[in-house]
Structure of Amidophosphoribosyltransferase:
Amino acid sequence: CGIFGATGVPDAANFVALGLHALQHRGQEAGGIVSFAPGVGFSSVRRFGYVRDNFTSADVMKQLPGQIACGHVRYSTAGSKGAAIRDVQPLFAEFAMGGCAIAHNGNLTNAEALRAELIDRGSIFQSSSDTECIIHLMARSIQRSIPERMKDALRRVEGAFSVIAMTRTKLIGVRDARGVRPLMLGRLTNGGWCLASETCALDIIGAEFVREVQPGEMVICTADGIESSFPFEAKPKKFCVFEYVYFSRPDSVIGGHSVYETRRRIGVELAKENPVEADLVCPVPDSGTPAAIGFSQESGIPYAMGIIRNQYMGRTFIEPTAEIRNMGVRLKLNVNRALIKGKRVILVDDSVVRGTTSQKIKDMILDAGAAEVHFRIASPPTQWPCFYGVDTPDRENLLAAQMTVEQMRQHLGVNSLAFVSLDGMYRACGEKKRAAEPQFCDACFSGDYPVRPTDVIAAGRVK
Ligand code: 5GP
Ligand code: SF4
Ligand code: MG
């Protein structure tokens, strides 16, 4: 998901809409904005679909007045899949200290257990979202201010969270102790503050990047400035390496590293580790593009656009059902036949999950008369589901969990198939290699889960 908040600026919701538009790649199912204005109170608009279709008209934006607002773009991982407007964030609730809205990126790994406990104690849940647990825990806290109640609540949850919350006067940003999901602090040109999942959302509104909210940090932005605290027990940092591989936008900077440059360097590592003779290096657009550029630079094999992307389609993976995903690949990508015919082609993509994309693309490329197809994948084999906010399927549906690389090569029917190594990926991220205590979360590739996935263990989905 993507989250954005702004305070200290007239019509803050307009800034939030723009910020969310820049974060649309992080979630396309739905979006919402909550604002507060004195005399009006809290206002909320939550809708299915793209930000540009829902939050551009004057009619809608005038329903969101005030100098403080926050918003969310949704990509469902926890809770019910697909359509339910009650699960669209920001969630908003009134309790003892006044109202509070919450936008959450990540996934809580003990939400089911907490929900059962809270329901037992009388809480009435309105949604199937894991985030709602935070609200109920806040409502039950005995603390005297919303930030303190929030700290209380967040000390009880496990898993990954970057949260933007707002009260009537405060914009609050918090990251879990491991810092699994990103969260950036920015300064608006008029002196107001904003919080965003990625720096690309600061760029769109001309905000200055101040710094990242640190793992385990809570920042409170008000008219008086920034207040920082570290309410949680310190933990080893585990930023999601998949944010670099795929999830974040290439024009964002995270942890001091350009996402684009990191992806390009993964391509360099991939070419070093798995060279092959060929005529062209082609990306599977757009996610494979920076790595393909790196692969081409390192190997000296010319880069070319062998597959053309229809710019009017979203990300295929995000579509919840298999039928739509299958269609999606063809609606989105088409082969540049004139270029491909008779050529030995290296195809570079960021990842293989179910294998749907790779299979379809290989068919299209061979159909267009390619002499050879060599797949190069800019991440290690995805063998494990993510429980921290990326919607990877269970192991039965992960191609690399079911087959060896050679079996996958045969299954896909390509001349060769190779993945970057874990160490290669770490080198591209600026490390020497993967350390004994890894510098990132890489559980979907390694199976080393930094946070015990309580709920899924209870449900018997993993050991
Ligand atoms: P597959 O077709 O193998 O299931 O999915 C791989 C493709 O989906 C890749 O091209 C990649 O760009 C995209 N993808 C991989 N992982 C994710 C993910 O977690 N979320 C989304 N939205 N897309 C993904
Ligand atoms: Fe990121 Fe993979 Fe860890 Fe999930 S399991 S947080 S996608 S690295
Ligand atoms: Mg892709």
About this structure: The chain has a mean pLDDT of 93.
